[in-house]
Amino acid sequence: MARPLRSDAAMRREALIEAAAVCFREDGYRVPFEAVAARAGVGRGTLYRNFKDREALALAIFSREVDRMAAAIDPAVPFDATFERILHEGAPTLTLFGRISAELLADGENRAAFLALGDRMETVLAPVLAAAQTRGEVAGGVTPRDVVLALRMVGGLLRSFFTPAEVAETIGAAARLLLGGMRPRPGR
């Protein structure tokens, strides 16, 4: 079992994750590691001590986002509001995921880790979906995997060059379409 990081090491690791998210968004997934390390205010060696490769760094970005969402969502909140909140608050990460997945060359270990992130997100969303289905907000046949797919679909629509208004408009239109498709149908 891995020991917890010292507070200074944990702060450097978090700075690297944040720096990578910004660099990947601004300059693309293939940005030089030196740029990520410089933005984080650390040396390249510190970067490599924390992350074996850029896929591991990307995994850390997305894992942090899943953790953040898990702490922020509440099954008692109506499903539409939760879905739109995830889209709006997660838009930068969804956009980044779409951008990185187009360039990702994940090996077996990293591929498994990326797939496990999807599984974690499904686990986070399962209680929210179950509560929404109990309240009659979402059709019984909708699965957590369907919700994750819908989130990824919207992420695929977002572009890093969109203005905040364009992001909001795209999210609003996509949410209306997707949420409408998840609602129960009378007589079914």
Summarize the topology.
Layout: H1 7-27, H2 33-40, H3 44-50, H4 54-72, H5 79-103, H6 108-134, H7 144-157, H8 164-182
Helix pairs in contact: 1-2, 1-4, 4-5, 4-6, 5-7, 5-8, 6-7
Gross morphology is elongated
Low-confidence segments = none
Provide the CATH topology of the largest domain.
Tetracycline Repressor, domain 2
Number of helices: 8
Question: What characterizes the major β-sheet?
Answer: none
**End-to-end Cα distance:** 49 Å
Approximately what portion of the residues adopt beta-strand conformation?
under 5%
Characterization of this structure:
The chain contains eight helices and no strands. The chain has 188 residues and is mainly alpha-helical. Helix 1 crosses helix 4, helix 4 (54-72) runs antiparallel to helix 5 and helix 5 packs across helix 7 (144-157). It has helices at residues 7-27, 33-40, 44-50, 54-72, 79-103, 108-134, 144-157, 164-182.
Give the tags.
Tetracycline Repressor, domain 2, Arc Repressor Mutant, subunit A, 0% strand, 2 domains, 74% helix, 8 helices, mainly alpha, 188 residues
Quick structural gist:
This protein has helices at residues 7-27, 33-40, 44-50, 54-72, 79-103, 108-134, 144-157, 164-182. The protein is mainly alpha-helical and 188 residues long. Helix 4 (54-72) packs antiparallel against helix 5 (79-103) and helix 6 crosses helix 7.
